[in-house]
Amino acid sequence: MNQKVARALTIAGSDSGGGAGIQADLKTFQELHVYGMSAITAITVQNTLGVHGIQEIRPDIVASQIEAVTTDIGVDAVKTGMISNIKIMEAIASLVKKYKLSNLVIDPVMISKSGHALLKEDARLALKELLIPLAMVITPNLPEAEVLVGHSLDNMAARKEAAQYLRDLGAKHVVIKGGHLSDQENADDLFYNGNEFTLLSSPRFHTQHTHGTGCTFSAAITAYLAKGEAPDIAVQRAKNYITDAIRYPLNIGQGHGPTNHWAHRLQEEQNEK
Ligand SMILES: Nc1ncnc2c1ncn2[C@@H]1O[C@H](COP(=O)(O)OP(=O)(O)OP(=O)(O)O)[C@@H](O)[C@H]1O
Ligand SMILES: Cc1ncc(CO)c(N)n1
């Protein structure tokens, strides 16, 4: 086998519970046959019941992790997740530019599903100034998109304007995720590539096991980009992946459990029996 292996890097926080953050990203990369690497920005003490502590990693250590893998192994696509402070954000932005990491997916993580702040307030502006201009794809959930534009987005016209605003900041493709629109029958995400708007649509499942859905979705986009898919295809395939991962829950933990990262294989395994 001398086919070139796709390589993806996640720059994110560690979730000891294994459902979100670095752990979700690496599991997703592996499932999609992409070699996964990590630069850890923070260690969270976390389980399905919530976030119980955070230790930020020194910015120079975050930077060295990125340098170590970029200069040796190489990176076909990269994603960012939890980046809790400005110093870490500055370090990441300068290395993305230095190493011309063009397949950059930004998941602008701000608050965990359990309500814990994962991004300091003063870092929100830095996210807009430093990182969003470098993004190939940005994937805010609805509350994050509202923070980024500075007002509520309670209808589709407002969400389309928000997507245009994020494009104007420099992100080439925008996905405003609809997971939080819990009164809607479907879980529809608004995708904008600068020319047209499309909906990434799926049924909405009534489950409490949605911890790490955003991390898993953005990691899947990153994996498909690493494999050379165009962004329009990568987001649709990632939507299929996260939909299966939510559809077939593992029922782990006492609170908001993780998604099922190997669910996409179940159909295949069923067919083999
Ligand atoms: N109950 C659900 N049923 C089906 N799809 C869902 C459901 N909840 C979320 N999704 C999908 O999961 C993906 C992630 O969206 P979501 O809005 O949950 O991200 P998030 O809030 O950033 O997640 P997290 O912060 O837990 O990582 C989107 O494609 C969304 O439509
Ligand atoms: C480490 C980490 N990153 C992201 C999220 C958002 O789901 C989380 N809960 N924990």
From TrEMBL:
Belongs to the ThiD family. GO terms for biological process: thiamine biosynthetic process. This is Hydroxymethylpyrimidine/phosphomethylpyrimidine kinase. The gene is thiD. One of its GO terms (molecular function) is ATP binding. GO terms for cellular component: cytosol. Its EC number is 2.7.1.49, 2.7.4.7. PANTHER family: HYDROXYMETHYLPYRIMIDINE_PHOSPHOMETHYLPYRIMIDINE KINASE THI20-RELATED, PHOSPHOMETHYLPYRIMIDINE KINASE. It is an enzyme of class 2 (transferase). It catalyses: 4-amino-5-hydroxymethyl-2-methylpyrimidine + ATP = 4-amino-2-methyl-5-(phosphooxymethyl)pyrimidine + ADP + H(+); 4-amino-2-methyl-5-(phosphooxymethyl)pyrimidine + ATP = 4-amino-2-methyl-5-(diphosphooxymethyl)pyrimidine + ADP. Pathway: Cofactor biosynthesis; thiamine diphosphate biosynthesis; 4-amino-2-methyl-5-diphosphomethylpyrimidine from 5-amino-1-(5-phospho-D-ribosyl)imidazole: step 3/3; Cofactor biosynthesis; thiamine diphosphate biosynthesis; 4-amino-2-methyl-5-diphosphomethylpyrimidine from 5-amino-1-(5-phospho-D-ribosyl)imidazole: step 2/3. InterPro entries: HMP/HMP-P_kinase_dom, PM/HMP-P_kinase-1, Ribokinase-like. Pfam families: Phos_pyr_kin. Keywords: ATP-binding, Kinase, Nucleotide-binding, Thiamine biosynthesis, Transferase. Residues 15-260 form the Pyridoxamine kinase/Phosphomethylpyrimidine kinase domain. It comes from the Bacteria. Gene3D superfamilies: 3.40.1190.20.
